[in-house]
Each structure stands twice: as C-alpha cells, then as structure tokens.
Predict the structure of NAD-dependent succinate-semialdehyde dehydrogenase.
Amino acid sequence: MAIKSINPATGKVYKTYPSLTSEEIEQRLVEGEAQYQHYRWTSFSDRSNWLQAAADYLEDHDSGLGRIMTQEMGKPLGAAIAEVKKCAWVCRHYADHGADYLADERSDVGYVRYQPLGIILAVMPWNYPLWQVFRLAAPALMAGNVVLLKHASNVPKCALSIEQVFRKAGFPDGAFQTLLIGADQTAAVIADDRVRGVSLTGSGPAGSQVAAVAGQHLKKVVLELGGSDPFIVMPSADLDAAVETAVTARLQNNGQSCIAAKRFILVDNIADEFEARLVEKYESLVVGDPMQPETDIGPLATPSILRDIHKQVHDCLIAGAKALVGGHVEKLKASLPPELELGNFYPPTILSHIPPGTPADQEEFFGPVALIFRVKDLDEAIALANSTPFGLGASGWTQDATEQQRLINEIEAGAVFINSMVKSDPRLPFGGIKQSGIGRELGRHGILEFVNAKTVCVS
C-alpha cells in the first residue's frame, strides 16, 4: 500500500511513500528490542537531558514543523506552530518531573519500584500529528521504554519528522522509530511478543480493533477515543466569556478535536441571546488557505471526513433541524479561489431545533459544526449531557457554586471544566470513560500506565 502526503487545501500530492515490508518491520522490531535492553538502564538524568534537547529542537524549528502539519492535515499555521510549542512543554514537563513521578514508594512493609515494560507501540491520529505522539512518547521514554510509532497514513511527513526530532536530540538509535505501515499491517506488530503495550488515540472502531488484538495477546492498552463534549450554559453565566470561548472550543483545529465542545446545551431563558451572538461570531469567520494569517478555518483533513460531516448535517436537516448558518458546501466552494476548489472545505455551521433521533443524539461530529440544544433547567442539562455513549470532557458555565458542584459531580466524563474550555495539560491526567477511552495520559497518571509497579520486600 502506498502512503501519500496530500495537501487537503489543494488536493496536491506532495510525495508517495512505500509501506514497510515484513522484513523491514522485523528489522525495526529487532533494533527496538536490542536498544531497550540498553536504554532501560540509562539514568533519569540522561533521559531528562535528551528530552530537554528535544524541547530545544522543537522550539528552534517550530515554524518548519508547523508548516509540515498545515500542509498535511490543514490546520491554520498559527495553531500548528502553537502545537509544536506544546510538544516542547510536555518534553520539559517529564524531563523535570519524571524522576519524581517514578521514585520508589516506601511503606512500613516494603516499597514499590517502577520499571519500564519494553517496546510501546503508539497508534496515532492525524488531527494533532505531533502533540498526540509527544504526549505518549515523552513519558514513555522518560520511564525507560522505547517507542514505535504507527502514525495515520495521511501524515507521513509528520511521522518522519518526529523521528528526526528524537534523533537530533541525541536519543540512542532505536529508542524511537517511525513505522510507515498501513492499518492492515498493525495487528501483526501488536501481536509480536517484543511489543509490551499499545497506546491508541483515534475513533471508537479503531480502538475496539486494537483492544481486541491486544487483549488476545494480553497487552496493556491505553485508548483515547472520540467525544461529544457538552458545553452547558446556565443563566448566571458570563455570556460574553461563554460565547467567546464557545467559538474557540468548537472550531479549534478546524473542528477536528476529540475534546472540542460539540453540543451546546443552553437553558431556555439565555438561549436566544447566546444563539444570536454565536451566529454573529460564526458569520465573521474566514475560511480559506490555512497558510494565510487571516484564515480562521482551513480544510478538513481528508475527503472522507468531509463526506461524513456533510452527511450528518444533511440527515439532521432532513429530519427538521434548522441551519442558522452554514451547511451548504457548494456555496462555500464557489466563494473560494480556484487553487482551493479541490480542497476539503466545509462551512462553519450551527444547527438548532434538532429533533430526536438524528445523528446529533449519539454520534460525534468531527468538523466545524455546532449543535444547539435547549433545556429548561440544570436537571435536564445534566441528563442530556450524559445521554451519549461518550464521556471525554465537559464544560459548564455558571457562577452559582451549587450548580458548579453538581456539574462536577454528576457529569459522566474524564474531565469537567467550569467557566473555561476543555483542554489537555501535561500536569494533569487526560482521558475519558464509557466509549471515550481506557486509561490516562499526561500527569503522573500518564507515566505510570506503561511501567511495572514492582512490589519489593527485603527481610
């Protein structure tokens, strides 16, 4: 299978890469296992220094790495450069705190020593091509594991660039390797005895497939899957801040984020005002070339994502939903310059008056589409927020302390943010419940996912 680097704004193919052969995959597994037998005994100090060097390299090359991301998956260049800087942050965090996170835990009867497992396979998505990888790789490498990366097939240049970052930072050869392979080659790598754990960020079906193979071979997994995050606005909310944040929370990364606010749940007596303000913000957005500084929204990453979001919106409209803004692909395409006519562009869209039984009830919308629901009170808001199979993040907007505590306690999610948008932070654990995932990344919890908590008693 050929792996292509395609510009989603223009449809231009930059380069085609051949998939690795079985023999080439075996060679990388041999190299990874051999390096692990050495790397596992390196000091925390050495690993910290290499991670700091990786952070230095990322910061020194943020513009170039950002351009590669924008060229391959379409995010606005400013957001791509910010993503590179965030990768440097996670490297520095584990360089500074990893040794403390992994220090022996002593008690009256013995102690726990945390030791690496071996080769960890990272199966990563295209939407945050660097960040998703670094938030797994930084703690895994700091713990003494080695990493093999199977990246999404539409971001091969990003995948190879990440390997170069770790090589330039001074990590030993084989400590981090990129595998340019297709999805049909991944199961065999998971099944290999030398692979001791798998971390996947992606869709629910992909997570189920990986978990099934890993379970068959008794491999540890961490899964960060989809989300349909609620953004609940109560009457006491600061509407100025809520609306301003809502735009960013929904449209970050061209709307292609697991933790984007997707369902806006509004109490009736503030719904009209919030809705009107959100429409006004949406109507001012600039859709176009993601390399240009004035662009707010770039293309979706692939034609299939464009088809999926368009069908979801179409099905909602046929069922009786109302498009307050957007929803018409051809009208948007007619407004774009000729060089972008083959791009995967979708208009920023707001759907309201959504009847039950549409895709908005249970599906994740991965694109610049906001779904508005009206409720009469907090009880209804919480029930609606919990009504999907997902449980990744939630954002609640209220100045009432009692309402804040109810949202924190009763929302079924891996994270609840009050009066701010959901975001990941190297200092805090990140992950979901229900069909949004298993396990945690980031913080101390993240580095402990792929280690052996070895109990030690000495008489």
Summary: The chain is about 45% helix and 20% strand. The first strand starts at residue 2 and ends at 6. The chain has two domains: 2-225+436-456, 229-426. The longest helix spans residues 77-101.
